[in-house]
Specification:
The two termini are 29 Å apart. The chain is built from 11 helices and 35 strands. The protein has an 8-stranded parallel β-barrel with strand order 4-5-6-7-8-9-10-11, surrounded by 4 helices. Strands 28-15-29-34-31-32 form a 6-stranded antiparallel sheet, with no helix packed on it. Strands 16-27-17-23-20-21 form a 6-stranded antiparallel sheet, with no helix packed on it. The longest helix is centred in the first third of the chain and has 13 residues. The chain is 15% helix and 28% strand.
Amino acid sequence: MNVSTLRRTLVPFLLCTAVVVSPVAPAQDNSAPAHRIVIEGDHLALDGQPLQIISGELHYERIPREYWRDRLKKARAMGLNTISTYVFWNVHEPKPGAYDFTGSLDVAAFVRTAQEEGLYVILRPGPYACAEWDLGGLPAWLLADPNIVLRSSDEKFLAPAEQRLGTELAPLQITHGGPIVAVQVENEYGSFGSDHDYMKRILAALRNAGLGEVLLYTADGGDELPAGTLPDIHAVVNFGPGEAKAEFAKLQKFRPGRPMMSGEYWDGWFDHWGEKHQTTNASQQAQELDWILSQGYSINLYMFHGGTNFGFMNGANWQKVYEPDVTSYDYDSPVSESGALTKKYFAFREVIAKHSPGVMIPDSPAPLPVIDVPEFELAESAPLLSNLPTPIRVERPRGMETFGQSYGYILYRTKIKEFLTGELTIHDLRSYARIFVNGKLAGTLDRRKKQDRLRIEAKADFTLDILVEGTGRINFTTELRNERQGINGSVTLAGKELSDWQVFLLPMDDLSKLRFSKASSDTSQGPAFYRGQFDLHDTGDTFLDTRGWGKGAVWINGHALGRFWNLGPQQTLYIPAPWLRKGANEVVVLAQDKPKALLLRGLRAPILDELGAK
């Protein structure tokens, strides 16, 4: 991800290349025959027949499991014969040695569903993904070790990186009758470094996991190919609109006479808080797609369907300033965040059909139901500062990862007996802090603005609280190696270092112990949880309108929807219908300030392009 500024911010893509469009993969059954995919000169071959991969990216972790089949059917109906997906290590191993492959994380079930829908699969297991996902998919608990060097030959990184993913997915390679035709080795490493010994270790780990029976490949920008590739491993190139001819020329020069493929063709873009919503030119991209397919080259559209950064999983960019990503990963892709088909979808479908003679492209599934939710009240509240867990005492503040916490918020508290007034400075703050003196807001510090200090006016004998939100770790560039959230350095007031801290861990993964009471006009002005409910006769997708609520996070029936921030451009949160139920539905909102009104509603369409106050 580093051929240009554009390339630096996006995510790697896909796989291998070929010459003619293949028939779709057969639906899986217990007697499915083994197949063989190889490189034959300038094209890929599946069981001896030329294969042109026409793929689209979607990430099962960003989609409710109940909607996997809907999205995959839409992929086939656009004419794709393959889908590509990342495996985000952090969600599958949330604690060291504790694995989760259940529910919406059952990647083997997702892969089998893709095969049932007639799609091949490109697997991108990392261990690093990028993808605008927190820390690029690396587990935050790695950062508990202050000396670890991520994405390097450091054994402290490599040992845990050798995951057990092969147990889940090795049997689903096409050599065993499954749909997996290719596996990516690491991800756009040429934009990060040039340690080929490290890349060889990652390659060996994949083979040891049993994932080396299909096409192995690396993906990089054209200028980064020498740094990110391995001699005997297939190489593909990633690029954005308007770059196809130049980037393919670089790949052809680097690997002459080999199959040509775009591992990621960036057909959209992602959004940062406080910045304009990104859209791209569908007509121009359709023309470029037409050219790519006419050359017999393979392609992976990044993204086919973006989905959502549910919970606290959004990542952040680094362009000399910190740029956290929004909750929506709509990406201006052919299929919207909620599964709606866009003009781009039909433009691409027409082009793909033109280059798929003899291939029957099915009709698109019926649109999913969408509903309004009439305005409802959140009549109960629970002030955050009155619902704190048991604290941990430390002499100096340190990052949340050192306490075994990966995501959410963390509160640092100290009591100051003497008279101190002056500049409060927080060294190495990550990433957004609200400072309270005796429970009253004294100010905020925002890493986006490189803020780390403010003036405190207080009398002697006061309590200082610093509430820090980890607003998403950087997921690209070597900056990610230092992404410990919270306070990672000293805190000084009027030049004097403060010590003897109480630390309250607030991962926000269990709200059951909150003590709610009736909210009223004199409810605390500070951060608080608000709870309410609405009733439904029928369920459907909807979009929660968070305008007027400032900054915070939302849960619906126990599901973490994600963050909101009045900065925009995103002003709604997507609620998928499977997370709703007929009858009563409970909503809990964490708001960092008291909202303008204790009211919410659900809209039939998202608001992704409305900037608010800076």
